[in-house]
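FAQ: What does a multi-protein file look like?

Like this. Sequence, then tokens, then the next protein.
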Amino acid sequence: MSAIITVQVGSQVSGRIQAWYADFSAPVKKGQLIAQIEPSLFKAAADEARANFAVARAAYDKGLANRSLAERNYARELALFEQNIASRGDLDSAEAAAGAARADIESADAAMVQAGASLSQALLNLSYTRIVSPIDGIVISRNIDVGQTVAASFTAPTLFTIAQDLTKMQVDTNVAEGDVGKLREGMETTFAVDAFPTRTF
């Protein structure tokens, strides 16, 4: 027999199991913390990504200031050129500087978006160190111990199996090939389980 709905709970990141909080036959609620992967490496990665984002943001802000200055210089040189006070070379230099400042802003903006994406990924990986129950149910298997290393590089390893409702079970059985043709919907059947060897259900 098995529960009608069971969920295998895995890990999306690799690491060492720091603690587990739900054992075999323990009731759990959806969202409840049931295990913790040691988070220090993921915290460090998140801190580094946060710092990189701050640097990218500062570069973007500096680029905005440089663009504003370059555009003001260009406007000043254009006015002086129209009054025949500035040379064509000075005007061309100011125009090139303004164009470069605008390009620098685009580059800084892209770097900030990239740093933001890296920060989001690092924070997401940090959140994955908390293994939580996806459903209300009962733990029917725990496949981890404290100190065990979980490797999630190719497939998510199963850490827990949780049954949603043990009051509703399904019977998994084999029927002899010769008897399959005799089966009809609604037929009564009986079965026995090892837990109650003297009872017939």
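And here is the next protein:
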Amino acid sequence: MDNQGRVSIMMPVYNGEKYIQAAIQSVILQKYQNWELIVVDDGSSDRTPMLLENFTDKRIKVIHQVNQGEATARNTALKYMEGEYLAFLDADDMFFPEFLESMVNFLINRPTLDAVYCDGWYIDTNDNYLELLSKQRRGPFQNDLFEALVRASDVFGPPTCTIIRRKIISINPIEFDPRIVIGPDWDFFIKVAQVTKWGYLDLKGVKYRVHQTNITLTTSTTKRLESLALCRENTIKNIRFDDCANEVKYYAFYDLLVNILYAQPKRQEEWFNSIQFSKILKKDRAKLLRLTAAESIIKDQSNPFVKEWLQKSLTLNPTDIKTCLLFLLVILFPNITHKILLMRHNSVQSANNSPFKIDSK
């Protein structure tokens, strides 16, 4: 078939024998038949390679590689794609039959848009419907999604519900960061959103499977935090980050410094000294210095920067009562400051657990 109008679908898979046949079958059953499916077997050790041999449809291309991780597998798929549009389908998820047809027609009728996303269902291991993707999202958003994605990853949910004009990816060019184990798609879509306009189609077009072998459930806390840190750091370094609203920049730094890098004081210190940090509002810098210091005390870590951060915070905002009190506690009663902060932290944790809520501490 002609590459014009063709949808190139990427499917990275690692040990996906349980669900991959249903996933591929959902592509074969599409009403829209101008597609190619690029399956990248990332070193599977189960029956996945054998099951893939059963599919003889010439539109299905299978690439085998040694295990290198999801991001690298997705980059491999990008290299083999020839279609006009780019779509995503993980080996345990499914498209509804009308998904490709509806999404492509949406973009055909809106030539000023570069990409579109829709709704869908979370399903369990037995294909039972759990809830709509939109129940776990903000939005929907349209046109420029960069700032919404910088704030948090809950714009799309899984990438399965999106289609992008592929020339956007090849012209810029945009790839997945192979260092990121959890959330390479979030980082990827932030880079895509930097140069695209999006539409939203009110369609329940995909099924996203939730099960105990999802990588988000099986990855260690250390790897998860490192991936989140890389996502945040890449975003803060993005050329468009300076143009975001003040509250969005504050939330991005809060998430990075307080929620993610809490056990890496040297890395936190590097960000406090960064050009990007110096560009946010003075009051926000003061607050972030105080909250990062407080979190370090709560975690009962031996952090050599705590006093220095509090002093910097006071320099930026000398009238802040909370910082003054915390600094006095650290100086006068270092042995009980941890207990005091921990008690207060536990009493307000449920209200301030998210970086996307206004902090009241």
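Q: Is there any per-entry metadata?
A: Some entries carry free-text notes. For the entry above: The longest helix spans residues 282-298.
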